[in-house]
Amino acid sequence: MNQEEISQLIKEKRWSELKEGIVNLHPVDLASLLSQLEPDERKRIVKMVPHETVENLLPELPKDLLTEVILAFPARKSAQLLSELPPDEMTDVLKDLTPEIRKTVFRHFSKKDSEEARDLLKYPSDTAGGLMTTEVPLLPETLTVKEALAFMREKAKEFETIYYIYLGKKDGTLSGVVSLRDIVLALPNARLIDLGKSGVISVTPDVDQEEVARLIARYDFFALPVVDKEGKLLGMVTVDDVVDVIMDEATEDITRIGGTQPLKESYLFSSPYTLVKSRVVWLLLLFGAATVSSSIIRNFKEVLTSVVTLAFFIPLIIDTGGNTGSQSSTLMIRSMATGEIKYTHLYTIIVRELFVGTMLGLLVAAVGFILALFINVSFMVSVTVATTIIAVVIAANILGATLPLLIKKMGFDPAIVSGPLLTTIVDALGLFIYFTVARMLL
Questions:
Q1: What is the separation of C-alpha 99 from the centre of its chain, rounded to a whole number of angstroms?
Q2: Averaged pLDDT, 302-327
Q3: Burial class, 229, CB count within 10 angstroms (exposed 0-12 / middle 13-18 / buried 19+)
Q4: Predicted pLDDT at 212
Q5: What is the pLDDT of residues 276-292, one digit of tens each?
Q6: Does the domain spanning 3-126 belong to CATH 3.30.750.24?
Q7: Residues 315, 164: Cα–Cα separation, whole Å
Q8: Environment class of residue 428 by beta-carbon count within 10 Å: exposed (0-12), middle (13-18) or buried (19+)?
Q9: Is 168 in a helix, a strand, or coil?
Q10: What is the pTM for the complete model shown?
Q11: Which pLDDT does position 10 carry in this prediction?
Q12: More confidently predicted of 108 and 278
């Protein structure tokens, strides 16, 4: 039974036939289905969901719906469900609950679960500490392969993943890592210290989630250990958590590139008021910035009055500048996201984009010059258009490439200077260059 058939059963209120379909529905699809229902229908269906399915369902739910589903169960049942999740997922759910509900759930936690949750909750969500799970296989480096396998057979179910076995010294300091594959293929009497790799790449809990994602992607890790300042293992960040980070960061960048604030919830769970709030600030800011362009045109009105044909090329000039700036800023933001480009490369980037902008400007200016002649404007107006295009493309190219770096250096998200904001800035600059060149040549 697929999601559409289940939706039809709910629509027809055939509750007795629903249970079988819900049991076989994937938690992600079930979360999607619940988001489309009315509160009363959700509450009824959640109570039909088997215990083991609810465990996997909770991390897939958006914040508002998560609180509603948790409230559908008695507090003791909610605490039990949460305690059976991996620590990182349990912490994510707790962070999304209201303080009152969280306090109620904590009352029914065991001492161990309560301490573990409080330890993880102290880390911000966008750091390695906020992503990590504390269920990590850490074995003494002096163990043999035979002893390690015996331990893993007994304890493996307690760990979220066993891609890697981390090795520790007597004082608990992380000393190495060995893959489960290497352990399985090794001789029984071989020691872990001889199989493991030293110089383990790790992060501290305060490292930003984007850096964690970059390291896992760069080294093709399945997990990355998190250590304290003394080098003792605190936990690990698994690759599935990094996939979520990449998706969240990409969503955030895309919304900012589009000139809106990122939504805390999904679009369907956001109220019209929230959608207006996420857009209006940027819209007003861009509106204010656009008035600069109007002021430039007003200040150069005598140039436009004397050579009316200049007005024909205003859209061409500002569109060319905006497109050029968007191209270079997009390339730069992507390179920064992958760690390829840093602020120390600023001088190299300026020189490089100056050359690239000049080449692009000459090519586009040639087309603009021919176009101007083709529509029977004067030779000097054609020269003015071509000269302006060269200058605008060079300026937009350099601005688009350097502004993200400068904004990042100031501690802001570089995505805010791409898209509408950069286009508005380049529009005003393009008009200023255009009319200045026209005044000089005409």
A1: 26
A2: 86
A3: exposed
A4: 92
A5: 877 787 778 778 877 88
A6: no
A7: 58
A8: buried
A9: strand
A10: 0.67
A11: 72
A12: 108
The segment(s) of the chain belonging to CATH 1.10.357.20 are: 267-441
Residue range(s) occupied by CATH 1.25.60.10 in the chain: 3-126
Q: Which CATH number among 3.40.50.300, 3.10.580.10, 3.30.300.10, 3.40.50.2300 corresponds to the domain 138-241?
A: 3.10.580.10
- Location of structure tokens 């559409």: 4
Q: For residues 407 and 400, give the distance between their C-alpha atoms in angstroms, rounded to a whole number.
A: 11
The half-sphere exposure of 181 on its side-chain side, counting CA atoms within 13 A, is: 1
103 Cα distance to chain centroid: 30
Q: How far apart are CA 118 and CA 290, in angstroms?
A: 48
Q: What is the pLDDT of residues 231-265, one digit of tens each?
A: 999 999 988 888 877 777 777 777 777 667 777 66
Between 36 and 114, name the one with better pLDDT. Answer: 114
Instruction: Give the pair of three-digit tokens for residue 34.
Output: 């619940």
- Residue 198's region, left for phi above 0, alpha for psi from -120 to 50, else beta, is beta
Quote the pLDDT of residue 37.
Answer: 77
Distance CA 47, CA 44 (A): 6
Distance CA 25, CA 62 (A): 18
Torsion of CA 413, 415, 420, 421, to 10 degrees: 40
Phi, then psi, of 236 in degrees rounded to 5: -150, 155
Q: What is the mean pLDDT of the chain?
A: 84
56 token code pair: 């996997």
267-441: CATH class: mainly alpha
Residue 189 in tokens = 């009497």
Q: What is the mean pLDDT of residues 300-319?
A: 84
Where are the CATH 3.10.580.10 domain residues in the chain? 138-241
Which tens digit of pLDDT belongs to each residue from 87-99? 887 887 888 777 8
Instruction: Look up residue 404 and give its two tokens.
Output: 């993200």
CB 426 within 8 A of CB 399: yes
Which band of pLDDT confidence, cut at 50, 70 and 90, is reported for residue 228?
very high
User: Residue 296 phi/psi, 5° resolution?
Assistant: -65, -45
Task: Report the C-alpha gap between 205 and 322 in whole angstroms.
Answer: 40
Token pair recorded at residue 305: 């009055």
Residues 6 or more apart whose CB falls under 8 angstroms from that of 347 comprise: none
Q: Are the C-beta atoms of residues 216 and 207 closer than 8 Å to each other?
A: no
- Share above pLDDT 70 across residues of the chain, in percent, rounded to a whole number: 95
